[in-house]
Queue: 2 jobs
Job 1
Amino acid sequence: MRDRARDFLKECGFDEFEIIDSLADASSREYYRILVDSKSYILMDSSMMRDALENFVMMADKLSSAKVRVPKILKRDLSGGYLLLEDFGSTHLFDVISCDDVEKLYKKAISEIVLIQKSSIESLEIYDREFLKFEMDLMLEWYIKQYHNISLDDSDLSIVSTTIEAILDEVLSQKSGVVVHRDFHSKNLMILKDNSIGVIDFQDAKVGSVTYDLVSLLRDSYVKLDEGFIDKMLAFYLDESGLDVSFEELKRWFDFMGLQREIKILGIFARLSLRDGKDGYLEYIPQTLEYIVDVGSRYSLTKELATLLLKIKK
């Protein structure tokens, strides 16, 4: 823990505290669970990512106003890059996937998505074509070129480029204009003491498609859900949201939004390992690739890319 972080805790009135946990994060942010007089808190150290801290505070206010259960900000030092947060505990949705109440928990999570989508979009960036494409291009650079050390020929490069453009067309034709968390998966959803869902890691929110957070949740790189269960949860979302669209159209939207996200994730997981030395994410590449190959094989627009990625894997 940095000396400045310790000074911040003293400014919070904590002359004595115990660090009982250091929490991992894919970014350069650091989190510490601290104990003061038998009560625990979370210290967020974003001193290396101060812009993200400002976004976190803005989104915490937006989401809280929309009744989304997010951690309360107890103290802040925006210039230094530190926040003292309410502690949601250490039980993630990921940790209770096999419990008897998992369907109820997923329905609660989807209800949080509906609330997120009702929150204010003011001052948020739009998830536009340029950014969506930038994300997908990470796959070619980091997963294919660097992770597999493969240089594609012109024919295969054309498949990648053409498919990415087709996916972008499909994604941008969907209903959008809502707040998207962008990382709404089982390791960012906390099970609170009252069995409700707490939402964390929301600082990168943008304005985008209604299906993005559904994809993050139901085609989670860390959890494999049965397709029948996914369909059941999508039907629940339709009822909860009141979205005026058929189930079949929503499923197509969901599939193509999923392809965009999962193609991006292949690149991100490879980059986290190769650039940042975070090799733990490599174990989730097979699951992510399986999603792309499975869903991509269902549609004529994406079959060739699915075949190409399967060939590269081998």
Job 2
Amino acid sequence: MSDRRRVIALVTDAIGPYHRGGKEQRYLELAHRLAERAEVHVYTMNWWRGPSVRVDGAVTYHAICPLLPLYSGERRSIRQAAVFALCCLRLLTARCDVIEADHMPYIQLLPLKLVALLRRRRLVVTWHECWGPDYWRSYLGQPGRIGWLCERVAMGLPDAIIAASPQTASRLVEFTGGRVPIHTAPNGIDLASIGSIEAAADPADVIVVGRLLPHKRVDLLLDALAILRDEGHPVTVQVVGSGPQLQSLTDQAEALGLGDFVRFRQNVDDRALYGALKAARVAVFPSEREGFGIAVLEALACRIPVITTAAPDNLARHLVARSDGGGIVCDPTPRALAQAIASVLSSADDETAPDDRWLDEYDWASIADGVAKVLAA
């Protein structure tokens, strides 16, 4: 019997540390942990300078596509998605035993399915969030029917799906009718790293972390801060992240007269991020859509209260609800956010930290075990 190590091909158009986000962090963390069990090759855009192939520890990175902007305005770029999908045909000559791909932006799954069929390899796809027809319609209007068709067709292509949350798994089962095996392996956090970092020396009352995109609804938070200020409760805020809405949010803060209270920070590494979270009194995530919510999990691990919204597509609310007193889930309105922030700030110093032992199951080592089992099937 051969003792050759299995070869895993991870396909994603964006990955950390070059690009920050939930899926990017997931692939960065899992690539190195899966490399303890198999030979791992990551196929992505050309995020780095130098040769198209680079080695980082036990992981080999391949630039199969030129670096193109992920967004056109505030929405995903169709051109980038099409070019990356075409470049995925380069895996026809790649050495691998199984292909594991990110589900976004969907159309790359068509050439990857062709590669898998011709090479007689399994195609496993990680689904970070399942939109469904209603959200596509609210996102794009009438053209959303085409978006939903793309997502629906994509669901039938993998040999197996890994859902990034139990809720996403349930929605996938609903839409696929169980015709594709679906496994759950949530996003995770590095508990040891978070525990080793001290609070930063420049605290803020409130912190919000994430890509500055429309569905993150940081605009709601700014409106809530204006309400608190007008009621005699000025609050300092750090907005940590970058994205297409940076300028519009900066302009909104100035227009609301919040320039002295809001600080925008970009290019923050993990140590600085965890330090900033621990220094804050409350973390606010006003998203209307989250497939999981790594930043929410990180904030809870930093032992600060978390406020998020009850928007139906915001699956991070389930993490806050599970935290047993670690935060508040409120209506997705400025007034509700303002009331929740005021409530937490008035009681934060008096609250006993909630039991956070449940976070152990989200350690990346445990998540990698689950993913490895699916890929080895």
